[in-house]
Design a protein that fits this description.
Strand order of the largest sheet: 2-1-3-4-5-6
Radius of gyration: 21 Å
Number of strands: 12
Strand content: 15-25%
Order of helices and strands: EHHEHEHEHHEHEEHEEHEHHEHEHHH
Helix content: 25-40%
Shape: globular
Largest sheet: 6 strands, parallel
Length: 357
């Protein structure tokens, strides 16, 4: 069908491996998957290719080689196969895959959703499981593709990639990360303790140690740590009775726990490039849960434009936390209640190239 939509979904395969939607990229994949499945229920020209089963690569090759006049929507770095895997075999597969996509784009509109710039991420987050050298070449080949259209997960990422690779403005747009709206829940508060929470991946390289070190060891303040890859944290919070590590939980349950807190923490290192170009999924996660946030001064957070949170350098966090009272926090929550729908996935995942969905 001419101009019909074909969505290549990695979600089933990812959830089969991980069971829990645990980080920003996967949450975004899951949100796109849900959105397009909803659209398919009311449209007859939307096809979803599942990346499961032994024949998934054959189906994709057939799609790239034989399709004509379609909108083909893929998610980077899960654009059919993981394009950021380490090792020679994955490098060959990735470059072959991009060549096929470029061939496909001569006869179709190929749209890629970019949740991360993996090369910059691999450097700044010190991810030793990714091959920085290969990613540098891979992304250069990808973003210099003349026929591709790109949806970036933040304005700063979009601007950075456009400058670095010279992508024309008519082939780029932005859909920030969102969240599902949590219904108001009034049974949370049982005392006067102000509850802070960090919800997200907890591996080293994310400024977690500094965040914990700058949280007051004082009665009346509690910090909850929620997410995967944080087992190492138990050793550094020994003796801190007001800090709890709960591990990874399903996304819906995590969101409910967040909604029962007062302030969400975003401890990004503002001196690192990646953190300044990425829009943190946890920001919308906190807002759609109805709570305020305390963040370091990174570009994407500073350009938010609403007086609903606090932006301070990390060495100011302890004093800031002790200065903020519950009345002030409740005023922020009232403002958030009025605008949080703007940060729902239904609102944020709107794109002029996919305006019919």
């Amino acid at each position: 069908m001419e101009n019909s939509l074909v969505f290549v979904s990695p979600v089933g395969r990812i959830l089969k491996q991980r069971k829990i939607v645990g980080d920003g990229g996967i949450a975004r994949y899951n949100a796109w998957d849900k959105r397009i499945r909803t659209i398919r229920c009311r449209r007859g020209d939307t096809e979803i290719i599942e990346l499961t089963g032994r024949k998934r690569m054959l189906r994709l090759i057939k799609l790239f080689v034989l399709s004509k006049g379609k909108k083909i929507f893929l998610l980077y770095p899960h654009a059919g196969i993981r394009l950021d895997r380490k090792g020679f075999v994955y490098e060959v597969l990735s470059f072959t895959f991009i060549i096929l996509m470029r061939y496909c784009s001569c006869r179709n509109q190929v749209i890629l959703d970019i949740s991360d710039l993996k090369y910059e991420q691999s450097l700044d987050l010190e991810l030793d499981n990714l091959d920085s050298r290969a990613l540098k070449i891979l992304e250069k080949v990808l973003f210099l593709g003349r026929k591709f259209y790109f949806i970036f997960a933040s304005e700063s990422m979009c601007e950075f990639a456009s400058r670095k690779y010279g992508i024309p403005k008519n082939r780029i747009t932005t859909c920030i990360n969102g969240g599902d709206i949590v219904e108001e829940y009034n049974g949370c508060r049982t005392d006067n303790t102000i509850k802070y929470i960090y919800s997200g991946t907890l591996n080293r390289g994310r400024n977690i140690e500094n965040m914990i070190g700058n949280f007051p060891d004082k009665e009346g303040y509690e910090l909850i740590l929620l997410g995967n890859d944080g087992e190492w944290i138990d050793n550094i919070i020994k003796g801190r009775g007001n800090i709890k590590y709960l591990g990874a939980v399903p996304e819906q349950e995590a969101h409910r726990i967040v909604s029962c807190c007062d302030v969400g923490l975003i401890p990004y290192d503002e001196h690192r490039l990646y953190y300044n170009i990425a829009y943190p999924t946890k920001l919308s996660f906190y807002i759609t849960a109805g709570i305020s946030y305390l963040a370091t001064p990174t570009h994407e957070i500073e350009r938010l434009g609403y007086d609903i949170g606090y932006i301070r350098k990390m060495d100011e966090w302890k004093d800031t936390i002790m200065d903020i009272g519950i009345d002030e926090i409740n005023e922020k929550k009232k403002k958030i209640a009025q605008i949080k729908n703007e940060f729902s996935w239904d609102t944020t995942l709107s794109c002029r190239w996919l305006d019919e969905i």
